[in-house]
Design goal:
134 residues
Length: 134
């Protein structure tokens, strides 16, 4: 992934702007892999196996980008997306690309996930935020 540094000026000088990302999947191994493959000084990655914890955190500190598995404990990804009430791109990850949902996801990503696709999504959002901060 191309490295893009986003710096914001404040009263104390320049600081690194971090993109906040939520990754919600009921499989801890996939959460760990996502975090390991995408860690960066530019990203604040929070992973969740409990969708209710993700919703609670999103309501307190909304993310800039969300990746949701479709089948989660106790609820589906579209219900989690609605409950989060975030103004951010939300991508649904599912093994079933024909999944029926009432939520307007940014895109549905098929499993297995190609991490180059994830990195492109992140890079594009970093570029967009960089353009807005100038």
């Amino acid at each position: 992934m191309a490295r893009i540094l986003l710096l914001l000026s404040d009263s104390e000088g320049w600081q690194l702007m971090k993109l906040s990302i939520f990754y919600v999947d009921d499989e801890q191994d996939l959460c760990d892999i996502f975090e390991e493959l995408n860690q960066s000084d530019q990203l604040k990655i929070r992973t969740y196996v409990d969708p209710l914890a993700a919703v609670a955190d999103a309501l307190k500190d909304p993310p800039d980008l969300v990746f949701l598995d479709y089948r989660l404990p106790g609820m589906t990804g579209d219900k989690v997306a609605v409950a989060m009430k975030v103004d951010a791109p939300i991508y649904l990850i599912s093994g079933d690309l024909n999944v029926k949902t009432n939520f307007n996801f940014t895109r549905i990503i098929g499993k297995p996930v190609d991490n180059f696709d994830i990195q492109k999504i992140i890079s594009d959002l970093l570029e967009l935020k960089k353009g807005r901060s100038q």
